[in-house]
Amino acid sequence: MAATQSPANGHQPPQRPLIMRFAARSDVGRIRSKNDDSAYAGRHLAVVADGMGGHAGGDVASAATVLDMIHLDRGGYHGDAGTVLADEIQTANSLLSELVHQNPKLAGMGTTVTALLLAEGKLHFAHIGDSRAYRLRDGEFKQVSVDHTFVQRLIDEGRLRPEEAETHPHKNVLMRVLGDVDASPELDLDTLDVRPGDRWLLCSDGLNYVAGHAVERTVRETKNLRECVETLVDLTLEAGSPDNVTVIMVEIVEETPDDVSTAAVEVIPSTGAALAAAAAARKNSPPEDRNTAAGDDADPDSKEAKNAEGSSQDADGTPSAQAGATDPHLGEHLSAEVLREELASRPHELVGAAAAAAESGSIPTIAGRTVARRAATLLTHRAEQPANDAEDNLVPLKPRRWVTWAIAASVLVALTAGLWLGYAWTQTRYYVGEHDSRVAIFNGVSQRLGPIGLSSLETVTEIRMDSLPPFSQQRVRQTVPANDLYDAQRIVKNLELTGTTSPEQDCPTPSPSPAASTPAPAPTDSAVAAPAPDAAPAPAGPSPSPSPSVTCEAVQ
Predict the structure, then answer these.
(1) Which of 72, 75, 109 lies closest to 89, judged by CA?
(2) Residue 186: which region, alpha, beta or left (left: phi > 0; alpha: psi -120 to 50)?
(3) How many Å apart are CA 125 and CA 194, to the nearest integer?
(4) How many CB atoms neighbour CB 390 within 10 A?
(5) Is 549 helix (H, G, I), strand (E, B) or coil?
(6) 484 phi and psi angles, rounded to 5 deg
(7) What gap in Å lies between CA 131 and CA 363, rounded to an integer?
(8) Per the CB 3.0–4.6 Å rule, which of 77, 116, 162, 354 could disulfide with 38?
């Protein structure tokens, strides 16, 4: 057996494949009544999830996410492991959305995720939320993850000092998280170089109640991984532990022939034992309850027993995936069975809410065909998924959401276009009104659309309002509409010459003065709005005789 060697300057690759040695522990803490944390550690995958939502389903969110990711614990990805890890977390997010869609009482639940995937000699890192990842390499202990919290944003912007963060009243406010709010949450993703001897600490924020220097000293000085996680959790409990705490310690090593016996806690009973226990429980249960308990397995003659024996068909010969459409509990049974098969196939450690769900068989799932398909994919994850099964993926809400958004956007565009066209039309209109005690021409219409005015001042004339007859003053204050700018100027000219706003068709053009050399012609049907000749005086003010104006207005 060759000794473990570190690559010189990062250029010499290890002689054997790299795997993880691991240990994990989760505790509910001193204050909380249930554990919302979940974690899984194996030879290629380590993931911590801290559920949020309290009684509404924080434990459901973290357990569903971790159990959805455990099939990633393998090494053969051929260069696409980082993409697979990111896609699986997004799929887990869709699963949470579906769970909320099925059970609205879970609305608001969410979870953090911090995960490491070791594949093809690289370490792929994914993170969202405020759980943390630390690395100890060559004596340097460093936090790799960045908290997606409100106080961290204040620190990044220079508005808060790091030492003030722990006492800030909003230190637990998360800015990014998996859940039913964002259909495609933003993840922190990275591909890191890896060396034998690297040690990683993944933890939920419950460990933050232990001083940072104490955490670093424990990781540095405690060589045994199991002893290290036990010490860290015990330190948290001694500090009062107002929150759940979950810790994973991982060490990167070269694989050796005796790694088959790598220490791992067996938290899931084998399939045979689980079936026997379920069958015994079913015999002692009332007949009406035998087909309704989530996670229970049916009698040996049922389709679940056939699944345990390796059969993929129901009693009538139809595929079990199709039967999910008629038996709403088949998905739960099948998911629990496949999960037990998956966990029994390799060394691992499952802790927290995920372990409780796996032990009880209460796996957070979506009833029907989708669950059956997901379970089958989990069971046969080493094979490529057929392209014609793409419609069974657990993301049915995304298309519906996009359709809804597209319709809403179309309606908004149509409404905006209509409002703009209406506004553009108003800007082709004019009217005569009052401004600063003078007659003025306005562009637009005199109405308002809420706080938005639909007119603007075009020009202010020299005609004072008090120089007009009272009826003309009232008319101008109520605004006189015009078809265009020329029409508005004509109305102003009438006010200047006659003191009225009457069109020429209704009113004869008044003589500018009694001494005019040429008498005004009699009005005809073809009369045009033409005031007195240019040589006639046009004094400002009420100099024209009001008599014809009054008579004209009275005729109207």
Answers:
(1) 72
(2) beta
(3) 11
(4) 9
(5) helix
(6) -155, -175
(7) 23
(8) 354
Tracing tokens 């657990």 back to the chain, one arrives at 394
Q: Is residue 351 within 8 Å of 39, Cβ to Cβ?
A: yes
pLDDT under 50: residue ranges of the chain: 1-8, 262-331, 367-373, 375-398, 504-556
Calpha distance 123→194 (Å, rounded):
6
CA-based nearest residue to 228, from 48, 21, 5, 28? 21
Cα(492)–Cα(175) distance, integer angstroms: 62
| DSSP line for 185-221 | ---EEEEE---TT-EEEEE-GGGGGS-HHHHHHHHHH
Question: Tokens representing 458?
Answer: 């075009």
For residue 422, how many other CB atoms are within 10 A of its CB?
11
485: part of which helix (H) or strand (E)? helix 485-498
Q: Which amino acid is at 546?
A: P
Q: Which helix (H) or strand (E) holds 20?
A: strand 18-27
Element holding 330 (H helix, E strand)? helix 330-344
Express each pLDDT in 513-531 by its tens digit: 444 444 444 444 443 344 4
Q: How far apart are CA 261 and CA 265, in angstroms?
A: 11
Structure tokens at 334: 């099948």
Question: By three-state DSSP, how is residue 479 classified?
Answer: coil
**What type of residue sits at position 491?**
I
What is the pairing mode between strands 110-111 and 113-119?
A: unpaired
Amino acid at 425: W
Residue 414, amino acid: A
Which residues are CB-contacts of 420 (< 8 A; sequence separation ≥ 6)? none
pLDDT in tens, 452-505: 778 888 889 989 888 888 888 888 888 888 888 888 888 888 888 887 876 544
3-state class of 287 per DSSP? helix
CA dist., res. 235 & res. 229, Å (int): 10
